[in-house]
Amino acid sequence: MKLALIGVGDAGTRIVDRLVAAEAETGRWFTEGNVLAFNTAAHAFDETESIPDERQVLIGDTHPDVTQRVAADADDTSSTHVDGVDADDTEAASDSDRDGSDKSSTERPGVGGDPEVGADVATTDLPEIRRALDSIDETEVAATMVVAGLGGGTGAGVGSVIVEELQAVHESPVYALGVLPASTESDRRALTAARGIRTLVPLADAVFPVDNEAWRHGVEPVDERYDAINDAIATRIVGLFGAGERAPTSPSEMRIDPADIRRTLEVGGLASIGRETVTIETDSSGLMARLLRLLGLADDTRGGQETDAATVKRLVQQVLNAELTLPCDITSTDRALLILSGPPSAISRKGFETGRYLLEEETGTVEVLAGDEPLPDASTITATVLFANVTTVPRIDELQARATAAGAFEPSETGTDGAEDTGGAEDTGGAEDTGDTTLTDTDGGTVDIDRGDDDIEPTDDGIESPNVGGTDVGERGTADSDKTDPDTGDAVAARDHEFEFTDDAPGEDAEK
Ligand SMILES: Nc1nc2c(ncn2[C@@H]2O[C@H](COP(=O)(O)OP(=O)(O)OP(=O)(O)O)[C@@H](O)[C@H]2O)c(=O)[nH]1
């Protein structure tokens, strides 16, 4: 499936850079050069190797709250303030930069971790952002993915504005990939990410959170694991979206149809990806062995070796037990997609159906689509599984609970599934506790992440705004714009993007 990639902030820039490199390494050309990176600080651009320079857009360089340099003697004049959270007090003590040295947030280049400043920068620089977005050729791609660290001021603040902007002008789906901060990162990062998720779920067509906490494998500081995590992300995203994009070298009647990826993600909400690989016996992958098996003349046990079906079943079982990009209860998924990549000689129709059946059984959903990616010379089979609209996600409950404990949300507004859950059986006022992860907006309404729920309905003139995450997504189709809504022809307004923290947002206690 052709996919435009837009990295935002440091994490977004690094991950998109890795994705573009992986595209070239694997020959799965799925972006067609439709790649951009936006940042409020230039330093992450210095690290890029694969995103062309002209595709890296620095914004906010004239904004009064943006620091472009890392100054050892930075004074308080550049500090920002969010409802009781002094930027000086925020992520500095627990977040370290990639060189391992701690820096105060006033010394951090960019928006200093403040999503309100990020959103303000993006709104101010919207004309420049729109010019850059115009370089994405929507006729060449089937969807666009915005990639960002949701705990970042730039990632969450600028990222949400860009997703919203794309939704206004693109007819094709807009997905978001958002990195969740590790538990060792500051409360500020957790708050920003909790808000960011609540903003993106109703805004994007599907959100792929990637959990730095799970993927850091206990390593501290988490930035020592960035490269490994980014590799894991790239392998899974390229394995999913790039699967049908290699020049066909071998025919297959079961070949993955890019439309199936889009169809699987149509249910919206949160998506997670699992992936596992097994090495296969090369001596059984010959044309003759394949022919004999197809004709039913081969010994099904192949001299003691596993059958295709048994291998695929074992592989899919491994995926079900493997680390997912977003750890979740897979039985809460709405739809799943299985992609088998490997030599056609090793993936029989029976194997294929066995894998699909196992997924149906284990997820409890009948909506399992499947396809293969024929790789005639491969000596491995890889199973990539997409779980769409997963609704039981402990890690997101934890983030919401941490944000609530830190005072960002009113406890009475929470509907998370964890210890802080006030919506349980005893709660007469809350929604029925279904065990699902539920996000709560600042007005006290619930935003169930199950997009099958009626809480969030796309409307004729765009996306209904439940004002989640404090981001005022406003209404589409109002004045003040040089863009028009492709559906209605109305002008699309430049909207305000406000990250509102409640009065009792954390002060100095925010520091972890
Ligand atoms: N997996 C991964 N996570 C990252 C990477 N870089 C940053 N992060 C995480 O992403 C979140 C946001 O960090 P940044 O991307 O540095 O922040 P930003 O969006 O540039 O915005 P600022 O807060 O203004 O620096 C944090 O939770 C980081 O731990 C990366 O390369 N890989």
UniProtKB/TrEMBL annotation:
Which residues does the UniProt record annotate as the domain Tubulin/FtsZ GTPase?
Answer: 2-248
Residues annotated as binding GTP: 153-155, 185, 212, 230
Q: Can you supply a Gene Ontology BP term from the record?
A: regulation of cell shape
Return the SUPFAM superfamilies for the record.
Tubulin nucleotide-binding domain-like (SSF52490)
Residue ranges with Low complexity bias: 436-447
Sequence ranges of Acidic residues compositional bias: 85-94, 418-435, 451-463, 501-512
Q: Can the keyword Nucleotide-binding be found in this entry's annotation? A: yes
Localization in the cell: Cytoplasm
Give the GO cellular component terms, alphabetically: cytoplasm
Q: Which UniProt keywords apply?
A: Cell shape, Cytoplasm, GTP-binding, Nucleotide-binding
Q: Give the chief site where it resides.
A: cytoplasm
What domain of life?
Archaea
For bias type Basic and acidic residues, the affected ranges are: 95-106, 473-486
Q: Name one Pfam family in it.
A: Tubulin
Region (Disordered) spans which residues? 71-124, 406-512
Q: Which Gene3D superfamilies match?
A: Tubulin/FtsZ, C-terminal domain, Tubulin/FtsZ, GTPase domain
**Stated role:** Involved in cell shape control.
Recorded family membership:
Belongs to the CetZ family.
Task: Spell out the PANTHER family in the cross-references.
Answer: CELL DIVISION PROTEIN FTSZ-RELATED, TUBULIN-LIKE PROTEIN CETZ
Q: What is this protein called?
A: Tubulin-like protein CetZ
- What is the protein's species of origin? Halorubrum laminariae
Q: Which gene encodes it?
A: cetZ
